[in-house]
Amino acid sequence: MKTAVFWSLFFLSGVYTGSAFAFSLGGEKTVNLVDQNGERHQVATIVFDSAGKDITYSIDWHEEAFADHFLSMRPFKCFEGPDKYWCRVPYPYEIRRSVSKQDFTDLEYDLLFVWKGSNEYGVNLWNGIYYKLAEQDNQLVGTLHEMDMDKLGVPPEAGDLRPVGETDLEAGDPDSHWLPRLVIE
């Protein structure tokens, strides 16, 4: 009986992590955009640093994977596909670049894109791409959500480092997008 009580308390206490978060938030990882055929396109490297009390990160974009475009009177770095381009949108406001096993918001803000047709001249900010990250199979997997990036045209109120809310995101249809997933491994 004492053994059963011990194991019950052990599992409930959170000490056991066998089924808990398996992705390591430490060291160097690769960022891949994944197309509809499952092919991975490496576009960046992330270094997670858990030396302090917070887990911070830095991103090194693989610039050779992106082409320079001047769209809607602004320079963009775009990952070119046959029919669509995925253009990086640097988050324009203050960001901590800190994550936890429960909160990847800062990293999601650093992985913003806007898509455009390959034969279109400009870019429409209502074609924003936001990858919501979750741990899956020892990776961070970003599920495509659509958003109107015009929301980012107005600075958030002082102290609001998280202006994009759930109501600003709409789950994207993976069949209608060239790069429906993002994987960090």
TrEMBL record:
<protein>
    <recommendedName>
        <fullName>DUF2330 domain-containing protein</fullName>
    </recommendedName>
</protein>
<keyword id="KW-0732">Signal</keyword>
<feature type="signal peptide">
    <location>
        <begin position="1"/>
        <end position="22"/>
    </location>
</feature>
